[in-house]
Write a structure and sequence with these properties.
heterotrimer; A alpha/beta (265); B alpha/beta (394); C alpha/beta (420); A: 265 residues; alpha/beta; 9-stranded mixed beta sheet; two-stranded antiparallel ribbon; 26% strand; B: 394 residues; 2 domains; two-stranded antiparallel sheet
Chain lengths: 265, 394, 420
């Protein structure tokens, strides 16, 4: 209320100093080895991260060190805006620079499928699984971020993309689950530990790539290549995920953080 | 077309005088200009001449860059009617004499100073080899860079197999020249040499050994060419020119060099002078390697091709021997001061014929044969020449 | 009798590395034409067009008839050794360090008398087979070999200075993911390479032949992505000091001319691999190789670039790719200059379309990866610097030599999808 002194942020500051509220880093280090999505060779490709040293306390610049970096908007831990997909291209505020900043600091629900994903690399999150989770943790509130914890971030090398002759094999949401989260729960955005919000075999789903197609078609956002989701409570954390403000950007690599109350973890 | 069909003019009335040798040094910080200047000053002193008296100049030098003879005119204060720069290396003595003599004979110049000299810095020899000639750059130097050692060992090996010369024959030449050098104060090599030492010597390039190779050094040699009348008027002892020959790139189709241009012009050489080889009191050959001295002996007619071994063994080659050869020690014992090596034999011959030789004087020396050879362009020496001199009436 | 080359011992880490010194490298302009033929492994001399006299050393005019019309032509390689010597000293540091050294005079069947290096198995007055190759200065020289092959002939000390034999050497093949890379590895193993480092980019992506590749004798798979400066530098830090031969098998090839492409990203990928990738390799591996050009029997000795023949003249069917190849070709010329005098040969293999997926729709004749791999090893064994492989490449090079501007317009006329 205007005029009344607000104590919430002061309390948050105190809690962060004391460690009662922790800041958890959900981001992979951005380096040239991190796998990027690979499309059929005839298509344009997602550029891997590259850093070229401009100078490093040497003849190119004696007292300083800096690099020129290059990457795709979708390299490493990254944010997807609705404009990224054809289904969202005509929506208002669809690019990263137009998304209201409120979207970037929001509560988050974490659905743990790590056990199932360990047994089945093509595990699909279904509406039934979500509802079973909600029985335990309560209905997913509208306007929240929802993250799929698969522990896939613990994989490295070839096992991460897990590509075989018939494409990639990694978990993701079924088309029905996406529809449910959009139509029944009106979530803000969906995040995964894999390289895409969609499952590895999603090209064969109906519609193809349902997470991209339906989430972005509804103006929802995406997060990929997350890690440390095992440090988050199922509910109660705050997700911090502001992408770079790129003009007409379809997404960007970013630092994703979560504020977690220790007693709730 | 006529190959010397018309009779060549003789050299009556033209003489050579004032032999000057500037003592050699193994290495010198001075430039070639300094050595040439010393030779020129020596000529002036010996002949009682000054700057204004010299109206012709003939120069031979490898290390004069960036100058040629032209730069020396202003450098030495000379105003000349006649100037030549002769690049024929070991044949330069003979060639400068031929050029200067015709100039004096025709009245184009009165007194021509002929000077040859080179400096020797630590890197001079290697630098000279790398820039010696286009053909040696393209087709010889890349193959081992042995310099002339490589080419002459091939020539020596071929001569030994084809003409029967033996290492003992080359050794005898070297040993006799060393004995001569011990009586010539200007020689850089002053220790005696025996045939045994020669036969046991270190191999440089099979079959050439250490004592077959000259020592590059700094030095200068010079002499004057003038009219006989002028020499007499100056009270300068002199020598007359009986005949000369000159030839370049002779026998180009010989697979390996086994003979030189002298073989082509030998008859003219003796015929023009009216002299026989037996009448010659001394022979000065260009001795960059003993095999070339042998070639000159054969091709000038002192012995037949293939009979050199017998000839050498049948004679003693010291200044006091039956066939005085390279009486001051030759380059092999005196040293090779670049282009001055082409003057060494000529200046020594003039010295002997004008009574100015010292302990190595050849008794009753009247007629001297001087031979020149030079410029290994690629695989063979291109320039050859020879001159017969007779001591002048004084 | 040539002793077989023994496997070199491990390098003594306490000893200073012997630095390369060059043999004499100055040549007149006419003589350089001899060197360019030698770089192709050809023995060519000037022939007078008027009187047919064969001329050596190279010159401006026929010494027999004064005609100025002198043509460089390949000559028969037979000859007779008529004089020989063994040098024991030299004024040139390179030779001085390698004494004793045999040279000799050879009468060529074609006519001229030449000075040449002489193989240890040749005796005086014997018939010889002449070769022309570039020496460690990068200039062409003549060498006389025995007329018939002798045992261990390639191991002759003097002949080895003209070749880049992979036997007992350690080789880096920059991209082992492709058939070309794998065929090259196999050919090197057959040729006796002691160690073959194989660069694999993006190990998280599977590729065909990976199991067979790892099983080849001497192979060590190494992470290497030549589009990543850090990756290249890290590998060079690890193996740069033991890379004797570098073979760059990496390429990025896509069809399309400039206007057929939408945007520059594919062209950027082509440049990133074909040009900047080469640049990264040069900066990371070049200095170390350059310093090891005289480092024993397994000295650094060769850098192999594999280039489309259209690097010489653009082919719009693969227009932007061949432009990036042209950039790489120009850079390889720069590299040749930078390696001059170090004893490292830059070997450029030019070939027409490869038999691979990106050239699949092109008509034959195409070059198979195996044939290209064998040609690489042959060039290294023979010490050849410029290889033109296959009928398409030979045709293009021939036309290029004749008149590059005519070739440019011929290629403009070519129907789509078909070589000239």
């Amino acid at each position: 209320m205007k005029g009344e002194k607000c104590n919430t942020l002061a309390a948050l500051a105190t809690a962060m100093s004391s460690g009662e509220v922790e800041t958890v880093d959900l981001t992979h280090t951005l380096d040239s080895d991190f796998p990027v999505i690979v499309l059929p060779p005839e298509f344009g490709q997602c550029a891997p991260f590259r850093a070229e040293v401009v100078s490093r306390y040497d003849e190119r610049g004696p007292g300083w060190y800096w690099q020129n970096i290059s990457m795709c908007e979708h390299t490493g831990t990254h944010f997807d805006a609705p404009i990224h997909w054809i289904s969202g291209k005509d929506l208002p505020n669809a690019s990263v620079d137009a998304i209201p900043a409120t979207a970037f600091v929001r509560p988050v629900c974490v659905i743990d499928c790590s056990k199932e994903c360990a047994e089945n690399e093509d595990f699909l999150l279904t509406p039934e699984f979500i509802q079973a989770w909600e029985k335990q943790h309560g209905q997913i509130p509208a306007g929240n971020w929802v993250l799929l914890r698969s522990d896939w971030s613990l994989r490295s090398g070839a096992a991460y993309l897990n590509m075989r002759e018939d494409g990639a094999h990694s978990p993701g949401p079924s088309a029905d689950a996406v529809k449910f989260l959009v139509e029944e729960r009106d979530i803000l955005g969906f995040g995964t530990e894999t390289v895409g919000t969609d499952a590895g075999q999603a090209a064969h789903f109906s519609p193809p790539y349902p997470a991209h197609h339906l989430f972005h078609g509804a103006g929802k956002y995406g997060l990929q290549c997350l890690r440390n989701l095992d440090q988050l409570p199922p509910t109660g954390a705050i997700l911090v995920c502001p992408p770079l403000k790129i003009r007409n950007g379809s997404g960007s690599p970013l630092r994703v953080l979560a504020l977690v109350e220790r007693s709730a973890a | 077309m006529g190959q010397g069909k018309s009779k060549r003019a003789g050299y009556e009335g033209v003489v050579v005088a004032a032999p000057v040798s500037v003592p050699y040094e193994r290495f010198s910080p001075e430039p070639a200009h300094w050595w040439l200047a010393k030779a020129l000053a020596g000529l002036g002193k010996r002949a009682g001449l000054s700057v204004d008296d010299i109206d012709g100049l003939c120069v031979s030098s490898f290390t004069l860059f960036p100058d040629t003879a032209v730069g020396l005119t202003q450098h030495f204060g000379l105003t000349l009617r006649w100037l030549d720069h002769v690049p024929t290396g070991g044949a330069s003595g003979v060639v400068t004499l031929r050029r200067a003599a015709r100039a004096v004979q025709a009245g184009d110049a009165n007194i021509v100073a002929c000077i040859a000299g080179d400096t020797n810095h630590v890197d001079s020899f290697r630098a000279m080899l790398t820039t010696f000639s286009r053909f040696s750059q393209d087709a010889s130097y890349p193959y081992g860079s042995g310099g002339p050692n490589g080419s002459f060992s091939l020539i020596t090996s071929h001569h030994m197999k084809t003409c029967g010369t033996r290492r003992e024959d080359f050794g005898k030449i070297c040993v006799a020249q060393r004995a001569n050098a011990l009586n010539y104060p200007g020689a850089l090599m002053q220790s005696p040499l025996t045939l045994e030492q020669y036969m046991e010597a270190r191999l440089i390039a099979d079959p050439i050994v250490l004592f077959d190779c000259v020592m590059p050094c700094a030095g200068a040699e010079a002499y004057l060419v003038m009219r006989e009348n002028d020499a007499q008027a100056q009270n300068l002892p002199y020598a007359n020119i009986l005949s000369t020959i000159e030839r370049h790139n002779a026998f180009p189709d010989d697979p390996v060099q086994i003979r030189g241009g002298w073989a082509l012009d030998r008859d003219e050489f003796w015929g023009m002078a009216g002299v026989q080889p037996e009448q010659v009191d001394m022979l000065q050959t260009y001795d960059d390697y003993p095999v070339i001295s042998v070639m000159q002996m054969e091709d000038l007619g002192f012995c037949e091709k293939g009979a050199a071994s017998e000839f050498i063994q049948a004679n003693t080659l010291t200044y006091d021997g039956t066939f005085p050869h390279n009486t001051s020690g030759g380059q092999l014992s005196v040293g090779q001061a670049g282009a001055a090596g082409g003057f060494l034999g000529l200046v020594e011959a003039i010295r002997q014929l004008t009574g100015e030789a010292g302990d190595n004087a050849v008794k009753d020396a009247r007629i001297a044969a001087v031979s020149g050879f030079g410029m290994i362009n690629f695989d063979r020496g291109l320039c050859t020449g020879a001159v017969l001199l007779e001591s002048g009436q004084q | 009798m040539t002793d077989p080359l023994q496997r070199p011992p491990k390098k003594d880490p306490q000893k200073r590395t012997v630095l390369p010194t060059p043999p004499p490298g100055a040549r007149s302009r006419k003589a350089i034409a001899f060197s360019t033929a030698a770089a192709e492994g050809r023995l060519a001399l000037q022939n007078c067009a008027e009187c047919n006299h064969v001329i050596y050393p190279a010159r401006e005019v026929c010494p027999k008839c004064w005609s100025m019309d002198l043509q460089w032509k390949d000559i028969p390689d037979g000859g007779e050794l008529i004089a020989e010597t063994t040098l024991l000293t030299s004024v040139n540091t390179y030779f001085r360090e390698r004494m004793p050294w045999r040279i000799g005079t050879v009468r060529l069947d074609a006519g001229p008398m030449v000075l040449a290096h002489i193989h240890g198995d040749v005796g005086e007055y014997e018939r010889v087979r002449m070769i022309a190759r570039t020496d460690k200065s990068g200039q062409g020289v003549l060498m006389a070999l025995p007329e018939k092959e002798t045992a261990n002939m390639a191991d002759d000390k003097q002949l080895r200075t003209l070749t880049c034999d992979p036997k007992h050497r350690r080789v880096l093949v920059t991209d082992g993911r492709t058939q070309l890379g794998q065929c090259t590895v196999n050919a090197l193993a057959k040729a006796g390479a002691s160690k073959i480092f194989v660069g694999i980019a993006r190990e998280w992506r599977p590729y065909d032949g990976s199991a067979e590749l790892a099983a080849v004798s001497g192979v060590e798979l190494m992470p290497l992505d030549i589009t990543d400066t850090i990756s290249v530098n890290e590998l060079a830090a690890e193996i740069g000091g033991k890379t004797d031969i570098l073979i760059n098998t990496a390429e990025h090839v896509r069809p399309g001319s400039a206007m057929q492409r939408h945007g520059i990203l594919t062209a950027r990928d082509e440049m990133e691999t074909n040009y900047f990738g080469l640049m990264r390799l040069i900066q990371a591996f070049g200095p170390g190789m350059r310093g090891r050009g005289a480092d024993g029997d397994n000295s650094a000795c060769a850098w192999v670039n594999l280039l489309s023949v259209y690097a010489l003249s653009n082919w719009s069917v693969f227009g932007t790719t061949t432009a990036s190849q042209a950039a790489a070709y120009s850079l390889s010329q720069c590299l040749r200059g930078e390696f001059a005098g170090s004893g490292i040969k830059v070997v450029n293999v030019l070939f027409g379309p490869l038999e691979d997926s990106w050239r699949q729709p092109l008509p034959p004749p195409k070059v198979t990866p195996k044939r290209l791999a064998d040609a690489i090893v042959h060039a290294l064994r023979q010490g050849i610097e410029n290889v033109t492989l296959g009928p398409v490449a030979e045709d293009i090079v021939r036309r290029f030599r004749d008149d590059p501007f005519v070739l440019e317009r011929e290629l403009m006329q070519a129907p789509e999808g078909q070589a000239v």
